[in-house]
Amino acid sequence: MELKIYNPQADGFLKAIDWNFEELKEEITKKSSDYLNLVYSDDQIKDAKQDRANLRKLVTALENKRKEIKKEIMVPYDDFASKEKELVEIINGAIENIDTQVKGYEEGLRQEKLAKVKEIYKECIGDLDRTIPFDKIFKESWLNVSTTLKSIKEEIITIREKVDGDLKIINAENSPYIYEMKEEYLKDFDLMAAMAKKQQLEDTAKKKALYEEQKKQEAEEKERRRKEEAARVEMAGKVQSAPIPEKQPDPAGIVTQQPAIAESYQEQAAKLRRKRVVIEITANETQYAYLNEVLIKLKNNAEKVEILEKEEL
To answer: What is the pLDDT of residues 89-128, one digit of tens each?
Structure first.
């Protein structure tokens, strides 16, 4: 089966279109040169427009002739191209029929090899089939004719040993994040990714612990201030400071001094819960005068009592 061109023959195809190119080129170049150097005055604008129109007509005429020649030349080519495509469609129909059968045969071989590969997988993976699913490690290249079953088996064994070893390393880690590490590892069987996950979780836990401790301290400080403020409000108007007298000699030889009152609000509040106590004191006139002076100074914290004078025995 051979394509034969009867007309035109190989040496009969149109080699060139014979036309007066050189003559036109010389004339057009000369005329265009004149126009390139021509300067129109204001009263010659009408002539300029006419010259422009004439030149445009010349361009249009040349372009139209080019299109006409192309159309005439393309007539036999278009006829040939249409018939050639018709033949190609007929041939492609036969090719498609054969191709379907070839692909069906090749797909059958691939399915047979796939079944053998799955048998090798079960044999090599064993009880790790849930950890290492077939679909996770399967490669389309295993079904190529050039890929041997021996090389596939070696590759699956290598994967099993790697995963088994990596999981032992992860299980040996003293970390509360073993589950998360395994979960990360089983995505792509990447030990470094699992270790990075552990570090990430540990860093997050530390930051969380620091944050919670800070919030706890802030809460405790807030509660302490609240209690102090409550005590201060409760004591408002109830406690008045009294001047601390300097040491004064007791006429009887007794030295007395007002105790310091720089006490906390809690201590002052506790002292507000007072009991009434009546004390009977035996003193001479000098001691009585001094005692009366002290009672006057402590008028906010002591109540004036009647002094019953008695003769000393």
So the answer is: 999 999 999 999 999 999 999 999 999 999 999 999 988 8
Tell me the DSSP string of 163-190.
HHHHHHHHHTS--TTHHHHHHHHHHHT-
Q: What is the mean pLDDT of residues 41-69?
A: 92
pTM for the whole thing?
A: 0.51
Q: Read out DSSP for 253-309?
A: S-EE-PPP----HHHHHHHHS-----------HHHHHHHHHHHHHTTTTS-------
DSSP assignment string, 35-58: HHT----GGGHHHHHHHHHHHHHH
Instruction: Report the distance separating Cα 70 and Cα 275, nearest Å.
Output: 130
Q: Whole-angstrom Cα distance, residue 264 to residue 313?
A: 45
| 148 confidence band (pLDDT: 50, 70, 90) | very high
Cβ(242)–Cβ(271) below 8 Å: no
- In the chain, domain spans: 25-116, 125-230, 248-297
Long-range Cβ contact pairs of 228-234 (< 8 A, separation 24 or more): 228/265, 231/265, 231/266, 231/269, 232/265, 234/265, 234/269
